[in-house]
Structures are given as structure tokens and as C-alpha cells.
Amino acid sequence: FDELPLSVDLYGKYARITDYSAEGLSIKTEELVKDIVRRMCYIQSEFVIFHRREKRSSGEQHELQSNKSISIEVSEASHRFKVDLTKRIDTGLFLDHYKTRKFVESISDNSKVLNLFSYTGSFSVYAAAGNATLVESVDLSKTYSEWAKNNLLLNGFEGDKYPCITEDALKYIIESLNAKKSYDLVIFDPPSFSNSRKMEKDFDVQRDYVRYLRLINNLLTKEGRVIFSTNLSSFHMDPGRIQGFKVTNIT
């Protein structure tokens, strides 16, 4: 409903309510929503978390939301993941990508997989569970690379087959091209925008997707695939600019 722009995600015994409204709900409405969620989802009141997601200005990065961390392990399709329900804008596991993760698992058998902008490595866990021969997870953040490594470890995946690499995605793509690497599956699920100080240039998915896909194309085996995803609601893809690919919308 436009008048009540909320999402409710369930993580184990916790419910995380996110308020997307421009001005923020009133305290009275917030308490009412928490009570409804508590009763409808059979969750104790102390395990209902209310979170306001403020809209960013252009070029603005999300900051830490809280010094307090509620960190738990959750299960999804028999896989284990660490999530943090309070400290950051996102929890470490995007629940809306569950079907995509299952798809990755189903096509990873005997494959070399590159997970770019790997975040906390959930796609990497599913690729590893799908019997991939190599899963490389690349993210600019050392925090998220360690998180991804720990998620892989939680599921019994460790060693040289599952490296978690802290590096800029574009730089890693170019290094891999120079090293003549090839992959059967590349997961390209970038943020809409990033201007990290660790990057030579900011990243804008609408502006930069063609350049990345053209480079990634040169990393693919003959029957290789790219899963490209973005949550930018205004994003427009022009398949005519993507040479060498058969483009299929699987939204």
C-alpha cells in the first residue's frame, strides 16, 4: 500500500520491519505495526525490530545504523548464513534473491564460478553447494570478504577452491583477462551506485553495465553464462548494446 510502505522479513525468531516512507511513520503507527506483526507472526515483542530506511541523496553512501549488533545464524534451504539485524542498512542476506540463489546452485555443477560484488557470499555458498569446482568471491570491502569467508565456512566450504578476494571488481576483471582466466558462470549483482574511496572511479549501474558486461563476456567459456541483477527501479537495459550475448529476462 502506498500509504504504508513497509516490508516485514522473518529471520529465525526475529521479525525485521523496514519503513520506506519519506517522512517516517509516527511513533503511534510504528507501535501499531509492531503489535500487528507480533500477533500475526507469533513473535515475542522483544524480537520485533523496527528499522527506518532513509532515502539517500545522489552519491551518498549508507552509514552504520547502530552501534548495537544483533547477529544470528539463520537457515535457508539447508544452508547457514550469518545476518546482522541492526548494525547496517541491510542484514547480509537479501531474501528476495532466494530463487536466484537456487538457480545458481542448479547450474553450478562442475563449473568455475566468479561472484563479483560478492557482498556476504550467499551466491557463493549456493554455487559451492551446487558442486562448483571453483568459486571466487570478489568484493571491495574487507568486512564483507571476511563475512563471505565465514558464511562459506559455516557450510563446510574452505580451502583454495573458495577464495574470498578483497579487491575492486573492475580491477579484478582486468587482471583475470590478463591472466587468461575463464569462467563458466559469472554473477554480476552490483550496487546501484558506489563511490568508495578505495575505487579509482565511482560506479553507476545504469552508466557502467555495458562496459562491465563486455569485459565479462571475454572471461566466459564458450557456453558460459552471466547472471546480471540490479535493484535500481529506474534501470533500463538495451540488449542491442550487449554484443556476444543471448539476453534473457528471468525476473
**Mean of pLDDT:** 93
Shape: globular
Q: Give the neighbour order of strands across the main sheet.
A: 8-7-6-9-12
User: What share of the residues does DSSP label as strand, in percent?
Assistant: 15-25%
**Helix share of residues?**
25-40%
Rg (CA only):
19 Å
Tell me the span between the first and last alpha carbons. 22 Å
Total number of beta strands: 12
Secondary-structure element order, N to C? EEHEEEHEHEHEHEEEHE
Give the structural class: alpha/beta
How many distinct helices? 6
| pLDDT < 50 stretches | none
Largest sheet: 5 strands, parallel
List the helices and strands and how they pair.
Elements: E1 6-11, E2 14-19, H1 27-40, E3 48-52, E4 71-76, E5 79-84, H2 98-106, E6 112-116, H3 122-129, E7 134-139, H4 142-154, E8 164-166, H5 169-178, E9 183-188, E10 193-194, E11 203-204, H6 205-217, E12 220-228
Parallel strand pairs: 2-3, 6-7, 6-9, 7-8, 9-12
Antiparallel strand pairs: 1-2, 4-5, 10-11
Helix pairs in contact: 2-3
